[in-house]
Amino acid sequence: MTELLHLPWHEAREQASSRELVDASIATIEALNPKLNAFLHIARDAGEGMPVAVKDNIVTTGMPTTCASRILGRFLSPFDATAVARLRAGSCSIVGKTNLDEFAMGSSTEYSAFGPARNPWDTTRVPGGSSGGSAVAVAARMVPAALGSETGGSVRQPAALCGVVGLKPTYGRVSRNGLVAFGSSVDQIGIVTKTVRECAEMLGMIAGHDPLDSTSSMNPVDDYAADLDAGVRGLRFGVVREAVARLEGEVRANFDDALRGLRAGGAVIDEVSVPSIGYAIAIYYIVANAEASANLSRFDGIRYGRRSARAKTLREVYFESRGEGFGDEVKRRIMLGTFALSSGYYDAYYGRAQAVRAKLRADFDAAFERFDYLLTPTTPETAFPIGAKTDDPLSMYLSDIFTAPANLVGIPAIAVPSGFSRERLPLSLQIMAPLFAERALFRAASFFEHETGYWRERPPVCAE
Amino acid sequence: MKIDRNEAKRIADLAYLEFDEAGLERMAGEMTTILSYIDQLREVDVAGFESVATSEATLMRDDVPRPPVERSAVAANAPAFSGDGHFIVPKVIGD
Q1: Using CA atoms, how far apart are residues A398 and A57, in angstroms rounded to an integer?
Q2: Is A207 an 8 Å CB contact of chain B?
Q3: Do A352 and B42 touch (CB under 8 A)?
Q4: What is the layout of strands, in order, in the sheet containing A188-193?
Q5: Residue A269, beta-bridge partner list
Q6: Domain count for chain A
Q7: What is the reported pLDDT for B83?
Q8: Smallest CA–CA distance from A345 into chain B, residue
Q9: Domain range enclosing A319
Q10: 3-state SS assignment for residue A9
Q11: Do A347 and A451 have their domain in common?
Q12: Does A70 contact B at CB distance below 8 Å?
């Protein structure tokens, strides 16, 4: 397999034309996808540019958008998502659409209607999710970069389990226009890359206000790569006490190693308490699912997507198209969200979850008064075997225990490879920063990446 | 919070989702498990945090005409679309 796609993209650009890069990318996808199922659509006619993959819940012209759901049928978007349009304008070429949990609801990519994606470090294990296909595509060097989306950790968690860099920008930093809506107060387009520099350059291309998304921020776009070599001397890192208290075994030892590396670079590290952080998953599953139950009402079998062939009345069109078109996890979440918003339960569930969310936000504000960054591992464990959690929704939800808080609070957070377990599965460090502090986030992540160099490691599937 | 079969049916009707009997029973059990976890939110003292409104106003854009989505693209995505530009649905009134 070509070495081109193992290089950071600024080096690859010097060694090859953009036509050669796209051809190398498509050839690698064709060779590995039968084994990994990372792509739902391969754009074999992709034009020249830096090859980029796009999660299949972000709309693109000229190729299907399925959300890994049966309900969308043969949907073809008449427009590009703003982030996709900006990538195309920035000399990128979209080489395909990546696999995901249906409507981005899941943490393993097993809830895809088109079969699970597989982890390139061990194909019997999940790649994480919901942006599993995007993480696999970058980890297996099929593309240098991919777009994903986050609601509770759906970029960082698969990036962690696949050993690549994953960024969730500040809420509102990237336009959500053209991202199929799940939880509108928590959704954000994110980025998966091999290296921190590629991630910073990608963010520079897609960030910024968009008149078509009223929640996109007017905050000026920063020079995200400006401080990549500035080091961490004197910067203050807070270790979230409540998260670390739960850690065990290899994840704990790896996290302690990461702290030693930062300290050796002159970082000031201390513990900090974020008392409400343990409630994040409970808040998340009320807030995100309440919003999802409203957002997914648009899939009605009438305007686009699939209509049940059995339906004879209007009521049957709605009930049977949705009953046949949505998978079990999507139905579970619509049911939970509908319950939380229903008369008699609204205050006890939705109202209370929003109040605890406000308290969590205040906890983070207080922590960021003392610290420039907050640290946790990205995930509580390494990649789990396919099938291990599909019968236990709650244990699947707890995969996002360290990532969901950033979505609820709106802050940016990045997952950076931090080593390997004894079974040679990737481990990952999560760094969180205050609102719109992406430039500072990349600074710390870049230092850590240079100190450790794990991005150079290759999954076994690349050698076959 | 315990969700029984009848409560699951009430919610499914609100959500416009069809389930068979076994599906309803399973959904009731799974929702009960998940809501029991979520019920830990009851123990939090939220005094002072009840209002979640933010001070930032929603940005508004000027209401200027833009080219609409092409009708042919809409027609191609619709499960049933008439030649004169309408979505076709089963009869709603009458019988």
Answers
A1: 23
A2: no
A3: yes
A4: A39-42, A92-98, A50-55, A145-150, A188-193, A165-168, A413-420, A426-432, A373-377, A236-240, A268-272
A5: A237
A6: 2
A7: 87
A8: B1
A9: 279-352
A10: helix
A11: no
A12: no
Q: Kindly determine whether residue B19 and residue A349, on different chains, have CB atoms separated by under 8 Å.
A: no
pLDDT of the residue at A463: 81
Q: What is the dihedral of CA A166, A169, A173, A175, to 10 degrees?
A: 40
Within 13 A of A281's CA, how many CA atoms are on the CB side? 19
Statement: residue A175 has pLDDT above 70: yes
**Cα of B58 to nearest chain A Cα, Å:** 7
pLDDT reading at A452 higher than 90: yes
CB A117 within 8 A of CB A55: no
Classify residue B39 by its DSSP letter.
G
Q: Place A123 in a pLDDT band, splitting at 50, 70 and 90.
A: very high
| Domain match, A345 and A384 both | no
Q: Using the beta-carbon criterion (under 8 Å), do A359 and B18 form an inter-chain contact?
A: no
Residues of chain A numbered 319-358 and touching chain B (CB < 8 Å): 319-320, 322-324, 326, 331-332, 334-336, 338-339, 342, 348-349, 351-358
What distance in Å separates residue B84's CA from the closest CA in chain A? Answer: 15
Q: Of B11, B59, B89, which is closest to A338 when you measure between CB atoms?
A: B11
Q: Which overall architecture, per CATH, does domain B5-43 show?
A: Orthogonal Bundle (1.10)
pLDDT of residue A246: 79
Pairing of strands A145-150, A92-98: unpaired
Mutation target to probe the B interface, by most B beta carbons within 10 A, among A218, A242, A339 is: A339
What pLDDT, on the 0 to 100 scale, is given for residue B52?
59
Please indicate if any CB of chain A lies within 8 Å of the CB of B49. yes
